[in-house]
Amino acid sequence: MEKKQRISILGNPEIFQENRMMPCSDHKWYEKREEAAQGADMPLKRSLNGVWKFMWCPNPEGVPEGFEKTDFSTSGWQEIQVPGHMELQGYGQPQYTDTSYPWTGREDIKSLEVPRDINPTGIYAKSFTLPESLRDKRCRIHFEGVETAFFCWLNGVYIGYSEDSYTPAVFDITDALLAGKNKLVVQVSRFSSGAWLEDQDFWRMGGIVREVWVSVVPEVHIQDIEVKTDIVDDYRTGTVEILLALDSENKDCKDISVEWQIFNPAGEKVAEGRTTEAKASENNKEYSITGELSDISLWSAEVPNLYKVLLCVIDGSGNAVEWVVQQIGFRKVEIRDAILYMNGKRLVLNGVNRHEFSGYKGRAIGKEEMEWDVRFLKQNNFNAVRTSHYPNQSYWYELCDKYGLYVMDETNLETHGTWHTGANRDTLPGNFPEWREACLARAQAMLERDKNHPCIFSWSVGNESWSGQTLFDMSMYFRKRDSSRPVHYENVCHDRKWEGTTDFESRMYTTPEMAKEYLSNTPNKPYMLCEYAHAMGNSCGNLQEYTKLADEYPQYCGGFIWDYIDQSIIVKDMFGQETMAYGGDFDDRPADYNFCTNGLLYSDREISPKLWEVKYYYQSFELLPDENGVNIKNRNLFTDGGDLKLLWIAEKEGQVKAQCEWDICVKPLENGYCSIPEKTAENMRAVLLEPGEYVMTASLILKEDKLYAQAGHECAFGQQVILSEAADRKPGREEHDTVVPCMENKPPMQIIDGDTVFSVICDTCSVMYQKQTGKLVSYKVGGKELVYDSFHTLLPNFWRAPVDNDEGSKMKLRCAPWKIASLYQNVKEVSFQKRGDMAEVRVIYELFGNARCSVTHCISGDGSILVQEVWSREEKAECSNEDIPELPCFGMSWKLPLSMQNVKWYGKGPHETYTDRCEGSKIGIYKTTPKDSLAKYVVPQECGNHVQTRWAELTDEKGVGIRISGDIAFEFSVLPYTCHELEESRHLYELPRPYATVLRINKQQRGVGGDNSWGAEVHEPYRIYLEKELSFSFVIKPYFVKE
């Protein structure tokens, strides 16, 4: 095939394959029964993964003539690893764009043409020899995934061409195969007509990204298996129909029969038979196996019961020529009255969108990452995954069958970038006839490969490809080919003419209010959020506003968080340390920068702090403990919690006062109350006579090891705070009351009122203020100076480093005056005086407009400082209240020496928390360091905050430091950087070497938000408006170690 012809094929949407075999099921086949019974790796499979010879060219035009011939030398070529991306191995440039096609603005091409100049192309070559035992038989070569198009030659013979990056391309190579050494050559181009259909929000890279292998098939081979299971209304009887397509090398294939056996999840044989009747067609026969089983064990994500079908092909002489094993599951997916059901129970999807991705490998992930992912998802209470936005590797579905996850299988189709073509909406595939067959072929390739996996509950037509006849035809293909699963597509919400394309009312990034509006008006389809809770950077606030929809509206069937893992690429920074790169970091343009980092995990698979909130709201049990026991609400559909143990703990200020554990059994979808033993209850009543705050915690943990987690793994928890007050104890003060530290024996103190400084000298510490500005310039505890510099010590702070959602909602622009007010304050008035046995320092700051802030320090004889910060408005004729924007935060900042590295607190933890993202944490006593508090968000931003804090301690290695406390809970963080330093950096490696420890103490800061990252605001309850005076008080007490 000439170069000109190959280039023509790359640009022709009507040629998307040549010589490719018809798609079929992903079953395994063997020559021996014991191998099949064990489900072992296929001996009839020869992997071609590993090191290949490689030559990179900037475009197909630059490919040398005759490279595919056997005598073309590859001695001067480089090497490359397969599977793997070309770009991540030093060949070409990774590029990240969200919706724009990667060639936009780089090459002037007409709409729907393929770039000729900018089209990175790799030539791969691999030599292999089949073992003697596999020679002289029919052979096929399998490419599991190649981005985005490739031509293939074997020993100089043209084998075929294929597009569709994420479904297998299989070719028969029997006639081209040699008995000895074979030379395989593959030309891979990053851009083809198929690239117009693959405009997903991901890194644009190319290469052979999934496995390549050669298979040997027997003379008579089960080419395809289709398993159809159904459940009778009693949900105890199941029917099974297995359709087999046999491919025979012998056209006159007579007397072939198939023996079959079915084994239940316990490994017991429950059915068997032999079938000889077949419907013949050219070169193959089709067999049908039917049966009915009683007392079946249903498959669900909660209890993934799998049956095993063992098939044996018998030739006319009675010889077993092939053994095949196929896992099946009995489950029933239905939509009735606009409600989604699984096995007769209403199903709510606690899902996540998952790209196949690793910061080290890109999309060329292996089995180890997939196994880690499925266990991780199960451990953290996910029950569903959407394969956004392409079919995943076959092994992923095998794992989801085994571990139990509901999968929405999505066609490799997205054309978001064509939405920008104008008012006529000439979007792909639309109604263009030349693109129809390519799209239908993608749907067919996915369905035929994946059809036997019980984990798949829905087929998805694709993502963000607008609407039109082709998409509708794809949905009808799914329905006609497989009526057992509903069909999903979201984009018809933009064009209701094509409403019939989807069986769901599917939306993206809809606010909870918009979802309620639809659900309150007699919906005629199940309502799904196929993408929600955009997890970019420090996000996933107000998640409960979405999850509680499931309790309010039966037609709400849940959704999929966007998304599972950051798509940042791990590289070495200028200092030789690993760092996470995003769009634009490879000089790739156009680029959408860090918009690829929306994961609940960082790209190295470390957990992002957002994850814990999701785990909490996705848990299957709702627990509310009190002093007498635990109220349990079981949200499971099929399990009663018998595999779990309930732990109940009562603590007072972090100290355990009582605890017990016991087994539970709460029927699915029911409530129950588990009382603690009477002896424990009696002890608890005595404990509660002592006034104070008590925290009741209930946890459900695994009693025994599971596939996905070890015994002791916590599946769910709940907490409740109980206040016990003695008769002579007054109720807690109101928020704005002045807090005065009480001491029975107040030590004496010396006040020195100098010309320029005002000092208070105590027995164990000293405090010094600058008289002109009122700044705290020295605070020594046990001789150690705790003031790094006077410009950043206990000063009012109203700013935070904007999180990604703040960027999208333009918080920086609206609230910019508060950043200036945090950096530069105009001191209007300073006063120093002695009040009784305390010294008082008061500073009034003018901010902007009519805003003012007063800060008062009351110093006691033991060196404790009562700090009170009050924000108010001054009456000015030229200023209106509307001139004051909302506050990002309200509190104070203190820069301490770098040696202050030990952080301990009593409050929500151990991970960071915010007002709209704190239920996934527990109240307790925790420890950390400033370094560990700095979250690994790809772009530095606000992080490390802790809400509902009762007290916090910050000390050096000798135990010298401070303790912060208050009558009301506060927020605090301890980081190596100021909020301004975080804001000025675009990568973690750009942050300076830590030189100080920064303590921030807040009454409150705004929530992090999470509806989306391009305009949605933080929900109202978690914003700080200034309609009245705002005040905040806390006490700083010195800590030191006496010699």
UniProtKB/TrEMBL annotation:
Its EC number is 3.2.1.23. SUPFAM superfamilies: (Trans)glycosidases, beta-Galactosidase/glucuronidase domain, Galactose mutarotase-like, Galactose-binding domain-like. The keyword Coiled coil does not apply. Gene3D superfamilies: 2.70.98.10, Galactose-binding domain-like, Glycosidases, Immunoglobulins. It is an enzyme of class 3 (hydrolase). One of its GO terms (molecular function) is beta-galactosidase activity. Belongs to the glycosyl hydrolase 2 family. Keywords: Glycosidase, Hydrolase. One of its GO terms (biological process) is lactose catabolic process. This is Beta-galactosidase. Residues 759-1037 form the Beta galactosidase small chain/ domain. One of its GO terms (cellular component) is beta-galactosidase complex. It comes from the Bacteria. It catalyses: Hydrolysis of terminal non-reducing beta-D-galactose residues in beta-D-galactosides.
